[in-house]
Amino acid sequence: MELLYLLCSILSTFLTSLTLSLLLPLRTLLRRLSPSRAASPSSSSSVSLYQGTVFHERRRPVHHSFRYSVRYALIDLDDAPHALPNHLSADEARRIAGTSGRTLLLTIPESVGYEQNPLSLYYCYDDQILKQCIAEDMFGNWSIRANAPDNTLFVSISVQHPDLGNYFTATLKAKRVPSSLVSDHALFFWLMPHKVAVWIYWHAFKLWWKNVAFVQHPRYTNPAYREEALVRNQKLQCCPAIGLDKDKHLRLEGSSQGCRVNKESEVRYIKWRDAKWPWY
Question: Is the pLDDT of residue 133 over 70?
Fold first, then answer.
């Protein structure tokens, strides 16, 4: 049944994206003809654009690596013209991180009706100093390094496995794209989420072809998986290391959707979010 749902989802996404893609030239023309549209929020100073490369490497149980080009938006959540769906607000991120300055969100925006984000990262500042990063949609024993975004952007993630050790590494290296080179953000990010999804499922298939076992979602075998995950979440130490490494990258370690370090206590933040159809 899930295969049928998946095929229907692919067909629905294809038709929606095709329709919206065909309307993009008309939308671009209207923006150029209308000064008020040309000054829309999508081109505001609250968004910086980055283009770069993602590299993935799995060392065990079999070696598998690949790289692909990506485009990201860095959004100042305090200056954003409207709240972003399925993301934290600036105040929520500050509350989790225990900071009081500005909050930036690094993410791949929705394109022609489709959204696919392997990682969204919140940069939380005190004054002008980057103090915390919140990694969205990440679970497990992971370690992350990130620089304060400027003309360049760097993120590195490694994952520890109880049996396989440090078996996975991913990096993002990107450069800021001058706003003068991009007239329309919708065209800049056109089909970017679709490309990411294709890479995810294509390389999942290649891993399966290499005899890496497929792990079924625990909801099919353990109805109490959420409660058990929360118990494990409380037992694991959150962010045991925080600071700048020799390259002046902020380094965090933990295993939750986001984490917060406090001098008196260490608090994990976790929020369940149901997947969209057909994945619920």
Answer: yes
